[in-house]
Specification:
Blueprint lengths: L1 H4 L6 E6 L2 E5 L6 H7 L2 H17 L7 E4 L14 H15 L4 E5 L1 H9 L5 E4 L2 H12 L4 E5 L6 E3 L16 H12 L3
Parallel strand pairs: 2-5, 3-4, 3-5
Antiparallel strand pairs: 1-2, 1-6, 6-7
Length: 187
């Protein structure tokens, strides 16, 4: 809605929690449909938005890592060819544009590197690929950021929790983190 209202064509969902920052190529879609939804053009766009996110986060020398789609990042085509046919070409194009990006990494490796400070932001191919590790370490403090809008937009990284609304039991930590991050970000 905000992208439509501001005529923003390129935007992506980034989530921040603990030492992890992830940005998604696809969102809220069935896993069986993901492979058909990723292509080099879309991946390149999200890599470019990841670079913008690093600027918003004031990361001076960013290191962007791209997760593969398949186990072991496809293992040279043994588990799928999306890494060689779509992901790697997008990475090469981004590198030719001067974007500091590497990969595709096996997903289990890229999050280890990000957790230990070797990668500043991870480009994930689908929702749960990035949200499982993020929520494992920062479930109550995760923040959702829309990258690409002409203004800063953050929100808690969880649903509306209508089941506990008005009961006085909701944990405000994610909302507090969203406000704190919004103050730090630059559009």
């Amino acid at each position: 809605m905000l992208a439509e209202m501001t005529h923003t064509e390129r935007y992506a969902m980034m989530l921040v929690g603990g030492p992890l920052r992830i940005i998604l190529v696809t969102i809220h879609t069935a896993l069986k449909d993901v492979a058909g939804m990723i292509d080099s053009r879309k991946i390149l766009s999200v890599i470019q938005l990841a670079k913008r996110a690093c600027t918003m986060l004031r990361i001076r020398s960013p290191r962007i890592g791209v997760a593969g789609l398949n186990p072991h990042a496809g293992e040279a085509g043994m588990f799928g060819d999306e890494e060689t046919s779509e992901i790697a070409p997008a990475i090469r194009q981004a590198q030719s544009e001067g974007i500091p990006v590497s990969g595709p990494y096996p997903p289990d490796i890229v999050f280890y590197k990000a957790y230990h400070g070797e990668i500043d932001i991870v480009v994930c191919m689908y929702h749960d690929q990035g949200l499982i590790p993020l929520k494992m370490i920062a479930f109550e403090k995760g923040v959702n950021v829309t990258v690409g809008l002409p203004f800063v937009r953050t929100s808690p990284d969880h649903g509306t929790a209508f089941d506990i609304a008005w009961k006085g039991i909701a944990n405000p930590s994610s909302m507090i983190e969203a406000i704190k991050l919004a103050v730090k970000l630059k559009a």
